[in-house]
Design a protein that fits this description.
Elements (H helix, E strand, L loop, with lengths): L1 E7 L7 H17 L4 E4 L24 H8 L6 H13 L2 E9 L7 E9 L2 E7 L19 E4 L2 E7 L6 H9 L4 E5 L3 E3 L9 H13 L2 E5 L4 E2 L2 E3 L4 E3 L5 E4 L6 E7 L2 H10 L7 H11 L2
Parallel strand pairs: 1-2, 2-3, 7-8, 8-10
Antiparallel strand pairs: 1-15, 3-4, 4-5, 6-7, 9-12, 10-13, 11-12, 13-14
Helix pairs in contact: 1-3
Length: 290
Amino acid sequence: MIRASLVQMDVKPLAPAENFARMRAFVAAEAEAGSNLILFPELSNTGYVEPPAPGSPFVSNVPNYAAALVDASADPAGEEIGSLAALAEEKGVYIVAGLALRDAVLAGVIRNSSLLIGPGGVLGRYDKVHQWQNEKLYFRPGERIDVFDMAATPLGMQICYDIRFPEITRILAMKGAQVVTSVWASFGRDGEPVADDGLFIHRVYTRAAENGIFFLSCNRAGVHGNFRFFGRSCAAGPDGTILGALDHDREDVLRVDIDLSRIATYRGFTGIWADRAPHVYAKALAEETR
């Protein structure tokens, strides 16, 4: 049994020391509460990019925002990541954290990433393949979709906008992922009502049920300029059953239990993997591209 904590936290822009300190405090508290998998939102160390949306003004009053974002991004082999790894080792937990990371070789190049950290250090890394709007101004996109071992549980990671591309989750499931995490920094105009209060639930239900996996969606909280992050973190089981959901955009923690035996039960009952017809799909695709 896996007990997962989805930490719907606020993030201070360009303040990695403060943000990492808060993450470590959450890890310690959630480990004490009995969780062994702890999730943090997209870009938890730096805050979201600026301007947040095309045509909106910059919020942070810094002379060179791009350089400041690079400086605030974490060194994959640095002390900040090392401190999370040491805490994961001490507490015997696994952490999935959305982070801005510097390239290990190319100076000035950064990526919007999700790290799997656990006893033994960094166990996996996913660099966001699909960049949303102004993210393209700063981040180099990823080119790999991999599954990683979390204490004998295959785990896949994706980030925010990726969920609109079902290929990501399907590839992870085909590679054996039983748990897929999605970390977000999804927002709308502050003061405007949420257009669809169940948006995140719809999305996790769909990705979970069409693949027969556990899908965990961890969004952030807080306000940045004229934008408010939606929160509403949630999780679904392999049949689409909602394991838990936060119905607000404030800081909070959602805790859910994951019974991996439910995957085989659901897949065996529905036949969603046995009934796939990849030869038909390939034929149709080949005809479409002639």
